[in-house]
Write a structure and sequence with these properties.
The protein is built from 15 helices and 14 strands. The protein has about 425 residues and is of the alpha/beta class. It has two domains: about 200 residues, Glycogen Phosphorylase B (Rossmann fold); about 170 residues, 3-Layer(aba) Sandwich (Rossmann fold).
Length: about 425
């Protein structure tokens, strides 16, 4: 649409320091870049500083001196991404204390140093209500269309803090459309803000499935397990390690790779050593998103035992490459794999008992020859492919949809009321 511009605000976007962060925002933004004359993305990234209030104030004062005023020594320059949109990376000093309202105001202050006059864009898309949505509210023109996408699995924590809930209420009030990446998340928002159910829609993350390299040969045996993501208890990593230890007792050919970073790296290394599995469990630091497919092609089974997911991007990516998956029914995966249980892999119950993972693995191993990775990939392409989601977003933005979006874009209309 000639003359139309888009600004995207997000606390998550891939950087050198965090190559995994916000790859879903990257893909979704790339999918809609062709709809606008110009797209600018502002990545306000948490940089955790000291907890001590005096030291924290000193950090903020020093940051302000570096980034504002006539004598500022740090310039935030935009760079052109490979996808054709402009990116400005903005570090935001925050304290370790999880006060989401304070953090939102910190992100606002950091962005104000870069854009004192706000956005000139016609459409502003904020990712996560706090912070991207708050920044959209504070920086958009009065006549701009504001769209907010909620991804956060920690939404409940935000809404339990009165100050951050008050900010969130302002965001959802101002937004022209408020999107959730799964029905579970949409229903949570509807329960919290019933007056705004009419503007709530389910629009999934865009996944560039068409560009994903498919493994050259189908999986024949599920011997090489892979986990990709944050090394955290909420992701079920301890249960996964214990489950692997149980399964490995009877199957000496089993191997496990844990790909990612996080607080559990060293505890899990110690536990693997204690279990006598150091030669069968490999740890690998996080890698840029494009390199994840190398690991998926070199392994046989993605195992994710998360306690809660709003979408489950890694699961969709694995299926897109032709890799079987064993994942917990923890929210998002039930939607992303709807109709594909036993086709793309298996869904298992969320549990603290590692034997649930082992039982699921053994059931899946017994029916691996009945999986249909080609059908699974085709189904997910129609649901979550970049073209399909771009078509839906174009409708919500109020701009002309790309001709290639086709019928897939119509799958994601406004969410129905509770059935």
């Amino acid at each position: 649409m000639t003359g139309t511009t888009l600004a995207v605000t997000t606390p998550w976007h891939p950087t050198v320091q965090r190559p995994f962060a916000g790859s879903f925002v990257q893909v979704s933004t790339a999918a809609v870049t062709g709809l606008f004359d110009r797209v600018d993305l502002y990545d306000t990234e948490d940089w955790t500083g000291p907890a001590d209030p005096v030291a924290a104030r000193a950090v903020r004062k020093a940051y302000a001196a570096l980034t504002t005023g006539p004598a500022k020594r740090v310039e935030h320059r935009s760079r052109l991404s490979d996808a054709g949109y402009w990116v400005t990376d903005i570090p935001v000093p925050v304290t370790p204390r999880r006060d989401y309202a304070d953090w939102a105001h910190s992100h606002e202050s950091a962005l104000r140093a870069v854009l004192p006059d706000g956005f000139s864009a016609d459409v502003v898309h904020g990712h996560v209500g706090i912070y991207g949505g708050w920044l959209a509210l504070r920086f958009a023109r009065p006549d701009a269309r504001i769209v907010v996408t909620e991804h956060a699995s920690f939404l409940g924590k935000i809404l339990r803090q009165p100050r951050s809930r008050a900010l969130y209420a302002q965001v959802i009030e101002r937004a022209d459309a408020f999107l959730a990446v799964s029905r579970v998340l949409r229903d949570q928002l509807a329960a919290e803000f019933p007056a705004h159910t009419a503007k709530l829609h389910v629009v999934p993350n865009a996944v560039d499935i068409a560009a994903m390299p498919v493994r050259p040969e189908p999986v024949k045996a599920l011997h090489r397990w892979l986990y990709v993501g944050n090394m955290a208890a909420t992701k079920g990593v301890p249960e996964l390690v214990e489950a692997f230890a149980i399964a490995a007792e009877d199957e000496p050919e089993l191997r496990l790779t844990l790909l990612g970073s996080g607080v559990l790296i060293e505890p899990m290394r110690a536990r693997v050593k204690e279990l006598g599995l150091a030669d069968r469990v490999a740890f690998h630091d996080a890698v840029p998103p494009q390199r994840v497919f190398e690991f998926m092609h070199a392994h046989d089974l993605l195992v994710h035992a998360s306690k809660s997911e709003t979408f489950g991007m890694t699961t969709v990516e694995a299926v897109g490459t032709g890799m079987p998956v064993l994942v917990t029914a923890c929210g998002g995966p039930q939607e992303t794999l709807a109709g594909l249980d036993g086709v793309a892999g298996l869904l298992i119950d969320v549990s603290d008992d590692p034997r649930v993972i082992v039982d699921g693995y053994r059931r899946l191993a017994g029916q691996a020859d009945r999986l249909d990775p080609h059908r699974a990939r085709a189904e997910l392409l129609a649901r979550y492919g970049s073209a399909a989601v771009a078509g839906r977003l174009a409708e919500i933005y109020g701009v002309a949809a790309p001709a290639a979006a086709g019928a897939g874009a119509t799958e994601y209309g406004p969410a129905r009321e509770h059935e």
